[in-house]
Amino acid sequence: MKVRKSLSKALLFLHIIFFLLIIQAQLYFFCSASETMYYTESLFLPLKTLEISSDSLPRASSNRLPFTHNVTLTVSLSVGTPPQNVTMVLDTGSELSWLQCNTTKMGQPVFYPNRSSTYSPVACSSPTCTTRTQDFSIPASCDSRNLCHAVLSYADASSSEGNLAFDTFNIGGSDFSDTVIFGCMDSGYSSNSEEDSKTTGLIGMNRGSLSFVSQMGFKKFSYCISSSDFSGVLLLGDANFTWLLPLNYTPLIQISTPLPYFDRVAYTVQLEGIKVSDKLLQLPKSVFEPDHTGAGQTMVDSGTQFTFLLGPAYTALTNEFMNQTSRVLRVLEDPNFVFQGAMDLCFRVPINRTSLPQLPSVSLVFRGAEIMVSGDRLIYRVPGQVREMDEIFCFTFGNSDLLAIEAYVIGHHHQQNVWVEFDLEKSRIGFAQLRCDLARQRFGVYH
């Protein structure tokens, strides 16, 4: 994983389970002369999550909790010939898809390359290795067998390494032929071995040349996550449906000159302001714009659970939110308690309270679009934390500065009940408020 690309990836591999079950669906496709596939029909995939019980969450030695996640997006598919079933984290913030191929790890879901007749490693002298890995933060190299070797590094000090390879990916009943390049990883370090036991790898969906969506030639993909039961739908292809609400689009930001802290293949948009209720925070535009090093970009990332803001914006937001909720929420007065390493605004809510009080909405204002976060998406109950007769809830916006993340990251928790469309052809992202459980029914996708 690229270090600068992984500004948000410290938020990924830490205690997460989110199951995306694939049902039977037909995918039509044709191949171009360059072997890239372009799909003319759409593929609908049902989406479901499973939350880890509080008893299984790690305990810290102090009230400063470790940075963890208990929810993420995963997709189930098959790889190889004959097909092997795998579960992969769906990540719009990553490029290279990879599978764990180390068969010596007990209890670890793995892919067995020696059991696949269509598996083919990539030579280090091939153009795939020498030119298509240009966005990797650590350059690809040659191993002792002259195979293309990749090292993916994460901001939480996790890492994974292995060889690039080709193999057949199968999703929804249709073979993707030998056009998928992925990493077959056999070593590395994880900060959460329990999470490793839940998934086989990661499927990269950003704009890099080696991402899954780029290799497959999809012009669009979308997803919608329900806030009620965490079910939803993932759509690969176009969503030209008359019943779908009009999308408000914001352009993707691109730069031509490489900068040390700017991820050029991320889904970067321009955050222009933040509102609490209808009150726009008084912040200069420069707070939301990348500086000369590239630090300060805003990324839409399905691999991150919550949303993280740079210090000045985070401070202004939390101050205004506390001001508007002072009569309905009791702030946790404990400077040593920081949820997930970056959320230091927490509240005490009586255990016997049946519902949360009325809270002011928070709107993220982009160029041409906005996402409004309201209700129980604004505060999150911390599992296993009780003070006297109160449960602890924390504000679902975190401080990027506390994690040494030089970016704004829009996580999937704040994308619930929002149809999110990634339009690669027109270089834009569309948003529309939508009941995602109803969208799943409209598409005829059931669990």
UniProtKB/TrEMBL annotation:
BP GO terms, sorted: proteolysis
InterPro entries noted in UniProt: Aspartic_peptidase_A1, Aspartic_peptidase_AS, Pepsin-like_plant, PEPTIDASE_A1, Peptidase_aspartic_dom_sf, TAXi_C, TAXi_N
GO MF annotations in UniProt: aspartic-type endopeptidase activity
UniProt KW Glycoprotein keyword: yes
Alphabetic keyword roster: Aspartyl protease, Glycoprotein, Hydrolase, Protease
Domain of life: Eukaryota
Positions of the catalytic residues: D91, D301
Boundaries of every Peptidase A1 domain copy: 73-432
Family stated for the protein in its record: Belongs to the peptidase A1 family.
PANTHER family, per database record: ASPARTIC PROTEINASE PCS1, ASPARTYL PROTEASE-RELATED
Stated name of the protein: Peptidase A1 domain-containing protein
Species this chain originates from: Cinchona calisaya
